[in-house]
Amino acid sequence: MVKTEKIDLVKIAGFKKAQRKISALTAYDYSIARLLDESGIDLILVGDSGGNVALGHRNTLPVSMDEMTIFTRAAARAVKRAFLIADLPFGAYQVDPKEAVRNAIALAKAGAEAVKLEGVGYLGPIRAIIKAGIPVMGHLGFTPQSVNELGYHLQGKDPKAAARLMNDAKKLEQAGCFAIVLEMMPPELAKRISRTLKIPTIGIGAGPFCDGQVLVTYDMLGLYPDPPKFVNRYADVAAVIKKAVKKYISEIGNKTYINLSC
Fold it and tell me: What total number of domains does the chain contain?
């Protein structure tokens, strides 16, 4: 039976101390968020990855605050147990700390219990958002909002880059982040960062040694046609949907469809 006790920051910090792995997945709508929550997931990330898998963009850069607010409101209506985190989209925190706080407050009003932003270059906005009473999750390694600068490549491969990422992780912890996503970096580097920090690390394409793991739900369920190579696919829901739709079309065509009345 799935536990119903609410996940909060105290529990998240306690999971690391107890060496209890943290599970996380993404959601952008009520139905998926409800299924994840009822299944017992720890963290639900309303990611700007919704720009790719739900809105059809090539990357996350076009995602707006309005879209993230809609995604967050929809997911928040379903969540009872999991801790709900929403991404601040590109352009929502880069200009100045005051605007970052305004946008973080908008997502909090939509139901987010924390926000996530990328990179180490925005310590001012991070501190300002935390001062406003909103927890912040960091994100290092491959940061999708910097895809035009970084390309889609593994980060931290050479010693200098690895040392820089380690230092960046320490800066985010010192700034007050409650956790950090480590994306697309060598497993040994992610392991060293995870062992060095007191706050939890959540890996995605960073090996098995982080304190938790996150995946894009559409990727792990086979709903998105071109997932990253590191994704473990747990189901082929796309095939199930196509089979059901084809059966429906066939029944309509051969007049065997039974329309159940109310």
Answer: 1
Residue 84 belongs to what H/E stretch? strand 83-87
Domain assignment present for 197: yes
Would residue 192 count as lying in a domain?
Answer: yes
Residue range of the domain that includes 172: 9-236
The model carries a pTM of 0.95
- CA angle (126 as vertex; 125, 131 as ends), nearest 5: 95
d(CA 198, CA 239): 42
The H or E element spanning position 67 is helix 65-76
Identify the pLDDT of residue 2. Answer: 57
What residue ranges of the chain have pLDDT lower than 50?
A: none
Name, in order, each residue with C-beta under 8 angstroms of 128's C-beta and a sequence gap of 6 or more.
97, 98, 100, 101
Q: CB–CB of 163/187 below 8 Å?
A: no
Q: Is residue 260 included in any domain, yes or no?
A: no
pLDDT single digits (tens) 210-240: 999 999 999 999 999 988 889 999 999 999 9
Has 67 been annotated as catalytic?
Answer: no
**Cα→Cα distances 257→212, 248, 250, 251, Å:** 46, 8, 8, 5
Which listed residue (5, 183, 188, 251) is catalytic? 183
Q: 95 lies in a domain?
A: yes
Residue 207: give its domain's CATH number. Answer: 3.20.20.60
The set of residues, in sequence order, having a beta carbon less than 8 Å from that of 199 and lying 6+ positions away, is 13, 16, 173, 177, 178, 179, 180
